[in-house]
Structures are given as structure tokens and as C-alpha cells.
User: Which sequence fits this backbone?
């Protein structure tokens, strides 16, 4: 699991004057489920298309299994893509769709038939051989697209927002289905999404991208619990991100009040950003709180209530199973372990930080 | 209530739309040649159609043309659609509107533009020019059908094929092409239909000897009632109708296909396949019937209804030349086409003054009389008369001739008619018919006044003009074609007419008599000439020689009744009355007092036209 299956080295790509990817470095290990996560237009699809061979980078190298494949055309690469809109061939039956790659590879008829059966079973669509592609529902088409790809036994499957067009329920089912498939087949997945929940649920590794840079790369837990900068914190889940000052080791001044934390080594009186997840904000009696505030909004969210508390000029987002009515004066406390300190970017523009910085 | 009204309204609209077609279809099965008179059901017209070699030839041309044009247009349209789809949005919409304009443009404008382009570039019209024009006007229709399919196709589909291991060629032929195939089919069928039923553009860009069904129908119908043409039109309508049904079926077809996986080959594909097979077999069949002693082509340009069609077949049989026979209606029409070099012919039959004009403008090639031994059959007096417009008989051989004279009804006129003066006699006011053509009208007036019918003397012309104006109150009408009918039906007593017509009229109404007045008149001669740019002068000479054969000349005389200058042929005429007819073959004395029309030159024409306008306007006041 430790060797790099795919290694992107210093990839840059522009369309016209727009720099889309800037000197991007990224590696994917064998058998990994790696997710590219980021807002729309950040270059996820472009990265995937460079790996798939549909775009060539302006500079940099694509290494696959220790071989430079930068200039190899797509049909010569041992990987397959699942396109966002499935791209099934509408003039063919399902069986013909699935058989397409195998026929090109000149496999025997019996081999192809066996593979079709096997693949349809795998995606839970036995008996669909003779249906036409566009008579299927979105979820079914999605699974056929996967079946069509995996019969070719690729080493890597590239999936570009494969669940983007499905409704919530179906999406959740498909998430489990994809994980199951990956485990059964033992192939490497490179997955693109802009849905952070999906990324957190499915991935071994998440790569958070913004504006062509990698913001953070790590396990879902690392990304969620220890965002390296305000962008990541903001993008992954809801957060309270507050400009603060590190007074000394383990003491941070947030909105004029001193909070205990566990971070060290930021120096004394250093400006920092503090991230506190809404579920980590505890509401107590006013006199018990580190700071005091007033509940201004309240929404019921199913599993919890979401409240807004105005305290020392900042609107705190708070999630709790306990209801506190609007207008109540409250105190706020935060467990030191739940305060995440981040270096401030040196200027506004540099909010995007490359990984190897 | 409103529902019923709507239905009636719809019914009326549909009736209104299809009534003319229904009349056409019914007429094509009508035993009677007369429109509006049902005389029983018959398939004769259809049989005649399939036995008519020239129509079968036109069918062959039409099919080959439509097939080639639509295949080329569809191929170009497919490439263009793929290219346009890759363009930026702004460029794309501009390009699409540019390609759509030709569809909305008036067809006659497109047709003229094409003709001007070809003629301007010095390209003489031929099959290739029609083909180019057809391809061009078909492309927008191909695009209209193919481009939406390309747009509709998921861009990733081609990439998906590459991704699955296909080379770019495989991806194109196995995925892109089949995906847009329904569009290509309907594009092909639409182009085929458009090419098949086009008339205007074909008419203007076709070369000599090239007839499609629609131009054939046009030339035939112009000549008179031809029930075979109704049959042909009906077949054309049915074909186009079926093709359009097929085109419109294509989308439904797709829906059906979605539900039913098997039988994926769509109807459109089948239709296209069948179309091509049918066309190729039809063309093969027609070509197979062609004669095998073929040695070359000859392009003949003659007046309408001016030959026995049997003669053409005989010529082909005897010489092995394939005849491409075309007709014109006026000398001027013919002259424009030859002078512009728009179409090339090998042998033409203009009238005297036009021959003179063509010699003048250096359009004719001198004849090699060694190749026309049959010239000995042409009477010397006619050769002599012809020197009036063709000095030395260098360029032309007389084919038909006649005089201009007076036709009168013996039951209405008691006196002897031997002078033009009777046309100016107030006694016959209201029963005189004049010819509505400049030269013939002035022929009457100038001959009566004792002047040459080719005079350019302004005083004489003024005098003739005043004479014609003063005669106007007496004239029932200035006419061309109606003379025959009116005289036969006894609705006029006196008329100016050509001798050839007179023979025919006399057969219909024995009370009619024809005379060439003593003051003299016009003798006209139509003769065969070979244009300078003829590509097969040898064939042209063979044609002329063949026309001078006594038996052939006789066949033509029997068919068209215009006097033949072929003395040997005259001796073969069986009907004694006709053989001795003074109308058909007036004596030497008549010919010697007649003059041919000369080419008056541009200024001369303008002079006559000016005075003629005065006569015309004087009438309306
Ligand atoms: N062919 C192209 N020509 C010009 N610009 C392009 C092209 N493809 C992508 N871009 C631009 O590159 C940027 C990155 O595009 P990319 O498709 O990689 O984004 P993405 O991260 O996949 O976004 P999304 O989540 O919306 O799919 C966008 O600003 C896009 O407009
Ligand atoms: Mg994308």
C-alpha cells in the first residue's frame, strides 16, 4: 500500500490566460480511495482529465507505475473513467456497452459474455443485458457506467462526481455500493466531488483543492479535526473561524477573553485563526461562561438544534441537542482540546497555500 | 359546436391544400386527354411513360444527380456539423445563421446567382454545374438535420470510447457516427428529396442535353397537353411524399427503439439502403437498355415540335450517335444561351435573320459540304433565297420554309383576294386578325406600300407606322396563337398567317383559303447551323446530312406540315392534293416576289421597336 501508483509531478495547466493548475504535486498509493475535494471550478476535473489522458499538462509529469505516461493517449492507459454524465452509448444495448472495451481488446465471445454477466451481477443489475442505455434510471445508468469500466480490469478507476446527478437517498446507497465495489475489486479509486460529506464518508485520503492549489491532504479525520487553514476549516463542515491572538503556549485570547488550549509553539502574542466546530461550543449559565452572549436565532435541524449566539461582537454558530430559547442570556465555554489554532496567512491573497510549503 | 366548426375548417384547409394534387392524380388516370372530362380509368399514360426513352433518361439523370448530391451534401454536412460543434459559442451561432440563409433565399435568386457564377467563370453548364448547385443547396438541409444530433450527443461519449481502449478512428466510427446516424439519415433523405424535386436551380444550371424529371415535365407541358406528364408528376409527388413520411418517422422510431431493444436497425437506415439499391438498379436498368453501337454524342437545339421524334431514334440507330435533343421557343432565347456560352450545342436551327445575326457576331462555323452529300436534294431556288441572309450558303442548310400571307374565309369574303389592301378595307372592320410581332406587322404595311420589308428609311417607316395606326380601328385583335382557333371557328374573316399554319387550318376548316399577295411578302427559312464552339462538328454534319435525306425530310414534313425545301422528298409525298398544294409549295413566281428578313443590326432593331411601340400605344388611346 506504500508505493506510489500515480505520481503527479509539478503539473501546471492553463486555458488561455487562466492558470487552472499551478505546479501541482500529488501522489496516489495503490489500493487507495483518494478524493479530490474542492469548490466548483477549482480544477478537480482538469486534474482527473490529465490523469486520464484527455488533457495534456503545460508542464510537469504524470508517472504511472514508475513509467512516464504524460504523452500516452487515453486508450493506452490502464485506467478507466466514469464520466459525470455517464456517457453511455445510447445506440447500443447495455450488453454492447459493457462489451465495448472487451471487443476492442479482441477478447473471445465466451469471455465477453461471462464478463457481462459478472459485471451486471456486481452492480446488481442482472438481466439488463438487452435494455437500451437511455431507458434506465440515473442510478442504473451510473452503475452500468461502472460495469462498463471495470470489466476491463483497470488498475485505477477515475470517477468525476459520479453521484452528482442523483437524489440524496440514492446517493447514500451508491456511496456504500461504491465502497463495497472497491473492496471487492481491490482497485484504486480517484474520486472527485465537491460534497464534503461524501468525501468524509468514503475516502482513505482527501485532497482539498482551491484555485489550482492543494490546501491540505490527509485522512478524513485529520482534515476534519485539524484543518490547516481557514479555507479548509470553512469548506469542511460548519465552523466558527475567529481571528485571535496566541498569548503564550496553551493560552489564546478570543474576542478579548482568555481561553485555554493545547497548542504550543506559535510564540507569544502571535495573531492566529481559531477554529471551533459548532458542536464543540457549550452553552452554560452566563456567570459560568468564559464569555457571555445572547441567543439571537434558533432552528430545529432534526438531530439537533442550531443556534446563533452573539457574544463580544461575533456571531457564534452553536449546535446542541438542548434547546435554548431566543433571547436567553448564556455563557460560552469550549474544551481546550476542541480549539484548533491555525497560522494566519501573511496576506489575503495567500490564503491558498501549497502543500510543500 | 365550436369543435365541429374547427373540424370543418380544418377539412377545408386540407382540401384547399391538396385539391390541385388530387386533380393532377385523377387526370393521370383519365382516359380522355381533355381536362375535366372523365372518360374512364386507364394506365396507358403510365405505360407510355415507361416506354419513353427520353423520360427514362431524365429519370436516370434525376436519380444519379439526387444520389450524388445528397451523398456529398450529407458527408460535407456531417463534417461541418462536427467542426461547428467544436467552435466557440459566438462563432457557432454566426456560422449557423450564415448556413441557414440559403434556405430562406428566393430560389430564383440562388439559381441566377449560380448561373452567373458559372458563366462568369467561363464554365459552360454541364452535369457538374448542376451537381455543384444541388450539393450547395442541399448542405443547409443536411446541416439542419445532423447538427442538432451532434449538439445533443454527450461530448464525453467520444472520450469514453477512447477511455475504453478505442483508437480515435474506432471511436469515431463505432461511437460518434452511430450516435448521430439518425440525423445523418434524415439529412440524407431530406437532401435527396430536395434535389429530386428541385426545378428552378436545375433549370438555370443544367447543361445541354441534361434533363431531370422536373425540367422534362416543364418543357413537355409547355408544348401542350401531355397526360404522360400528369402521370410522371403523380409519381414524383408520391415519391417525395413517401420520402417525407420517412423523414418524419425517424424521431418516433427512436422512441420505439428505446422500449424495444431488438431490431435496432432503424427504418431510416433501411429506407436509405433501399433507396440506394433502387436507384442503382433503376440506373443500371435504364443504362442497360441503351444502344451499344454508341460512338459519341450530338447536342441538338431546335424549335419546339419541329421534328418527327421517330427521326431522332432512326438517326441514333443509323449513326451510333447519342442525340441530346433540346428545344427553344424563340430565336432570341436561343441566341442568349449560345452567345453567353452557357450551354454548348452541336447543331441548331435558327431562322434566317437570326442566322445572319449569328454570322455577324461570329458564332457559327462554316459548313463542310463534302460531309453533306444529301445537299443535292435541296432545291436550288431555296439555296438561292437563303443567300439573302447567308451569302454563299457558307453557314446554313435550309430545313423548313414558308411564306407570310393572308388566310381568308371564302364564305365571308366574296371578292378575289390578291392584295394586302383588303386588310385596310373598312368593309371588313372587326373581322381582321393581325400578327402581334414587329417584323410581320411591318411586312404587311411595307409590302402594301411597295417598300422593302428590310427598309431602314425613316420616311418609309413613318408612312408604314401611320398606315398601321389608321388600320387599328378595323382590327379585331393583334394575336399570335389564337389565329388558328379563331379562323377555324369562323370568328374572323381575314388574318395574317404563316403558310405552314394555313395547311393545318385548311384541314380543319375547308372554307379557309391562303394567298401570298401580289405586292410580295416575306419568305422565311429556318436552317441548320453549327456553332463555332461545337465539340462534335462531325456529328453535327452527320445530323444535317441525315435531315436532307428525302425519306427523313418526308417524315418531318408529314409530322409538322411546314414546307420542305427538299425537292426529292416532295416527289415522295403520297397525297396528290398536298404534293401539288400551292400553299405548301408555291410556284417560282411567288418565291421571286418574296424577300427574307435580314438582320437589321442593333440600331435597326431599335428603330423598328420604337415605331412599333407607337402603333401599340395608339391602340390603347
Ligand atoms: N476546455 C476548457 N477551456 C477553457 N477553460 C476551461 C476548460 N475546461 C475547464 N476550464 C476552466 O478551468 C477551470 C477548472 O475547471 P474544472 O472543470 O477542472 O473545475 P472543477 O473543479 O471540476 O469544477 P466543478 O466542480 O464545477 O466540476 C474552470 O474555471 C473552467 O472554467
Ligand atoms: Mg468538474
Assistant:
Amino acid at each position: 500500500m506504500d508505493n506510489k501508483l500515480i505520481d503527479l509531478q509539478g503539473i501546471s495547466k492553463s486555458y488561455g490566460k487562466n492558470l487552472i493548475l499551478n505546479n501541482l504535486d500529488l501522489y496516489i498509493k495503490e489500493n487507495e480511495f483518494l478524493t479530490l475535494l474542492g469548490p466548483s471550478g477549482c480544477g478537480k476535473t482538469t486534474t482527473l482529465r490529465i490523469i486520464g489522458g484527455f488533457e495534456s499538462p503545460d508542464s510537469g509529469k504524470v508517472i504511472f507505475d514508475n513509467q512516464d505516461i504524460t504523452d500516452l493517449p487515453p486508450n493506452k492507459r490502464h485506467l478507466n473513467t466514469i464520466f459525470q454524465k455517464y456517457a453511455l452509448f445510447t445506440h447500443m444495448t447495455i450488453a454492447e456497452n459493457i462489451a465495448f472495451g472487451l471487443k476492442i481488446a479482441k477478447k473471445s465471445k465466451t469471455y465477453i459474455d461471462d464478463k457481462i454477466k459478472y459485471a451486471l451481477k456486481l452492480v446488481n443489475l442482472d438481466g439488463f443485458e438487452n435494455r437500451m442505455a437511455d431507458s434506465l434510471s440515473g442510478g442504473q445508468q451510473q452503475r452500468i457506467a461502472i460495469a462498463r469500466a471495470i470489466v476491463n480490469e483497470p488498475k485505477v478507476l477515475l470517477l468525476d462526481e459520479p453521484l452528482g446527478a442523483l437524489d440524496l437517498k440514492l446517493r447514500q446507497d451508491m456511496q456504500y455500493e461504491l465502497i463495497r465495489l472497491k473492496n471487492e475489486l481491490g482497485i484504486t479509486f480517484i474520486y472527485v466531488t465537491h460534497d464534503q460529506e461524501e468525501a468524509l464518508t468514503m475516502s482513505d485520503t482527501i485532497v482539498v483543492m482551491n484555485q489550482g492549489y492543494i490546501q491540505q491532504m490527509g485522512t478524513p479525520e485529520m482534515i476534519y479535526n485539524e484543518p490547516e487553514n481557514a479555507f479548509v476549516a470553512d469548506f469542511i463542515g460548519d465552523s466558527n473561524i475567529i481571528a485571535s491572538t496566541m498569548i503564550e503556549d496553551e493560552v489564546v485570547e478570543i474576542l478579548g477573553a482568555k481561553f485555554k488550549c493545547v497548542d504550543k509553539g506559535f510564540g507569544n502574542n502571535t495573531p492566529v485563526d481559531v477554529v471551533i466546530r459548532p458542536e464543540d461550543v457549550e452553552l452554560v449559565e452566563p456567570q459560568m461562561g468564559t464569555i457571555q452572549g445572547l441567543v439571537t436565532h434558533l432552528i430545529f435541524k432534526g438531530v439537533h438544534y442550531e443556534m446563533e449566539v452573539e457574544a463580544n461582537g461575533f456571531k457564534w454558530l452553536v449546535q446542541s441537542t438542548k434547546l435554548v430559547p431566543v433571547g436567553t442570556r448564556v455563557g460560552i465555554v469550549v474544551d481546550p482540546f476542541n480549539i484548533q489554532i491555525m497560522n494566519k496567512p501573511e496576506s489575503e491573497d495567500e490564503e491558498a497555500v501549497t502543500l510543500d510549503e | 359546436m365550436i369543435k365541429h366548426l374547427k373540424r370543418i375548417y380544418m377539412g377545408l384547409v386540407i382540401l384547399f391544400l391538396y385539391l390541385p394534387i388530387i386533380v393532377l392524380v385523377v387526370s393521370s388516370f383519365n382516359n380522355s386527354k381533355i381536362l375535366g372530362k372523365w372518360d374512364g380509368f386507364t394506365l396507358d399514360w403510365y405505360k407510355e411513360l415507361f416506354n419513353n426513352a427520353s423520360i427514362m433518361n431524365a429519370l436516370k439523370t434525376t436519380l444519379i444527380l439526387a444520389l450524388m448530391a445528397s451523398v456529398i451534401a450529407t458527408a460535407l454536412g456531417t463534417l461541418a456539423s462536427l467542426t461547428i460543434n467544436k467552435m466557440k459559442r459566438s462563432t457557432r451561432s454566426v456560422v449557423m445563421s450564415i448556413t441557414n440563409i440559403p434556405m430562406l433565399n428566393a430560389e430564383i435568386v440562388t439559381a441566377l446567382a449560380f448561373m452567373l457564377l458559372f458563366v462568369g467563370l467561363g464554365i459552360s453548364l454541364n452535369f457538374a454545374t448542376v451537381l455543384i448547385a444541388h450539393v450547395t443547396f442541399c448542405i443547409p438541409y443536411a446541416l439542419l438535420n445532423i447538427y442538432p444530433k451532434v449538439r445533443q450527443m454527450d461530448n464525453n461519449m467520444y472520450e469514453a470510447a477512447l477511455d475504453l481502449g478505442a483508437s480515435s478512428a474506432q471511436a469515431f466510427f463505432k461511437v460518434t457516427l452511430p450516435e448521430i446516424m439518425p440525423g445523418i439519415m434524415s439529412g440524407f433523405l431530406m437532401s435527396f428529396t430536395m434535389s429530386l424535386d428541385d426545378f428552378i436551380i436545375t433549370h438555370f444550371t443544367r447543361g445541354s442535353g441534361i434533363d431531370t424529371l422536373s425540367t422534362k415535365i416543364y418543357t413537355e407541358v409547355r408544348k401542350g397537353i401531355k397526360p404522360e406528364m400528369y402521370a410522371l408528376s403523380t409519381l414524383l409527388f408520391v415519391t417525395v411524399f413517401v420520402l417525407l413520411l420517412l423523414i418524419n418517422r425517424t424521431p418516433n422510431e427512436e422512441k420505439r427503439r428505446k422500449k424495444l431493444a431488438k431490431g435496432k436497425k432503424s427504418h431510416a437506415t433501411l429506407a436509405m439502403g433501399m433507396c440506394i439499391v433502387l436507384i442503382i438498379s433503376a440506373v443500371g436498368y435504364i443504362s442497360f437498355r441503351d444502344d451499344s453501337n454508341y460512338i459519341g454524342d450530338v447536342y441538338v437545339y431546335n424549335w419546339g415540335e419541329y421534328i418527327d421524334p421517330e427521326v431522332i431514334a432512326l438517326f441514333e440507330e443509323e449513326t451510333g450517335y447519342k442525340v441530346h435533343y433540346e428545344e427553344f421557343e424563340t430565336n432570341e432565347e436561343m441566341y442568349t444561351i449560345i452567345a453567353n456560352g452557357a450551354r454548348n450545342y452541336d447543331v441548331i436551327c435558327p431562322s434566317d435573320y437570326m442566322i445572319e445575326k449569328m454570322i455577324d457576331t461570329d458564332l457559327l462555323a462554316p459548313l463542310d459540304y463534302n460531309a453533306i452529300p444529301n445537299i443535292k436534294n435541296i432545291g436550288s431556288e431555296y439555296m438561292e433565297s437563303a443567300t439573302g441572309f447567308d451569302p454563299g450558303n457558307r453557314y446554313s442548310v435550309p430545313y423548313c420554309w414558308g411564306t407570310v400571307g393572308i388566310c381568308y374565309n371564302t364564305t365571308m369574303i366574296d371578292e378575289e383576294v390578291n392584295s394586302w389592301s383588303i386588310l385596310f378595307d373598312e368593309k371588313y372592320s372587326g373581322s381582321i386578325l393581325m400578327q402581334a410581332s414587329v417584323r410581320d406587322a411591318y411586312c404587311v404595311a411595307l409590302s402594301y406600300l411597295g417598300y422593302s420589308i428590310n427598309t431602314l428609311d425613316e420616311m418609309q417607316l413613318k408612312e408604314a407606322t401611320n398606315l398601321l395606326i389608321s388600320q387599328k380601328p378595323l382590327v379585331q385583335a393583334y394575336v399570335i396563337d389564337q389565329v388558328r382557333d379563331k379562323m377555324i371557328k369562323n370568328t374572323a374573316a381575314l388574318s395574317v398567317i404563316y403558310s405552314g399554319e394555313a395547311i393545318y387550318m385548311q384541314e380543319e376548316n375547308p372554307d379557309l383559303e391562303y394567298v401570298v399577295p401580289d405586292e410580295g411578302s416575306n419568305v422565311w427559312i429556318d436552317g441548320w447551323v453549327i456553332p463555332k464552339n461545337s465539340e462534335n462538328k462531325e456529328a453535327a454534319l452527320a445530323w444535317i446530312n441525315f435531315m436532307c435525306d428525302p425519306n427523313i425530310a418526308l417524315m418531318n414534313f408529314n409530322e409538322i406540315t411546314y414546307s420542305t425545301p427538299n425537292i426529292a422528298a416532295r416527289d415522295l409525298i403520297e397525297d396528290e392534293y398536298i404534293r401539288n398544294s400551292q400553299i405548301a409549295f408555291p410556284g417560282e413566281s411567288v418565291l421571286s416576289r418574296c424577300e427574307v428578313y435580314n438582320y437589321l443590326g442593333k440600331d435597326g432593331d431599335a428603330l423598328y421597336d420604337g415605331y412599333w411601340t407607337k402603333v401599340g400605344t395608339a391602340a390603347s388611346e
Observations:
- Chain B has a mean pLDDT of 87.
- The interface with chain A takes residues 154, 156-157, 159-167, 170, 174-175, 178-179, 181, 257-259, 261-262, 264 of chain B (CB under 8 Å).
- The first strand of chain B starts at residue 296 and ends at 303.
- Residues A 15, 20, 38, 40-46, 194 surround adenosine-5'-triphosphate (ligand 1) (CB under 6 Å).
